[in-house]
Amino acid sequence: MQRKQRLREMVAAIVERGSLDVEALAELFAVSPATVRRDLEVLEKQRLVSRTRGGATTHASFNDLPLSYKTEQDTGEKRRIARQALRFLEGARVIGTTGGTTVSEFARLLMDRDGLTIVTNALNVATYLVANPRLRVFSAGGEVRSSSQEAVGPSAERFMADYNIDVAFIGVDGVDATAGCTNYDPVGCRVNAVLREQARVSVVLADATKIGRVALAQVCKMSDVDVLVTDDRAGGSALDAIRAQGCQVLTA
Predict the structure, then answer these.
(1) Which of 65, 96, 134, 246 is the most buried if burial means most Cβ atoms within 10 Å?
(2) What pTM value is reported for the model?
């Protein structure tokens, strides 16, 4: 395993479990304790973890993994989800998107489209799609979060509220039948909520690692989501519970 990948997975493991000691990390990644300590030093400088005596915990200022750490995780599943989501473009003239790695994979599939208008708060999505002159791209302004490259805050919320959206494609950090769709960032969460409210149809794109996860702030209840598109690793019982909330579930 290359160091870049190990660092990503090390952060994810610490976030998932709250804390891990050096010996456990060394065993998990099949490296020496000395290597783990060097890796933790790098991650601490990036304010992703805090080193403790004998291990590490999530950094106090941690909000979400930077986009660069998430881009290469579960790439195959995210691409399948993106292709599955294309079916909801039929008849749509104006779509909205948030940011996130799965939605970004979906946006890549729009480059051969004609006559479509995209409203987004994700700078990476807008920058990518504007290269196609046959698309109209409207991008929100505001504070830009490095974890998602999304513009957030009151100006982004007001921007989203000005548009009538046929279909919204929304990325989230957690999907749970009881807690609904949730994100780590409560400020960005409100922008996502406005986009969903402005759309006739809302489609949540979330790989299986998000199913059953509950993040800090709620975007919406599951009963407010029309469609969830995930991948075939997701547990059947968790998806059945989501379906029971009135949300259509598709697996890619």
Answers:
(1) 96
(2) 0.79
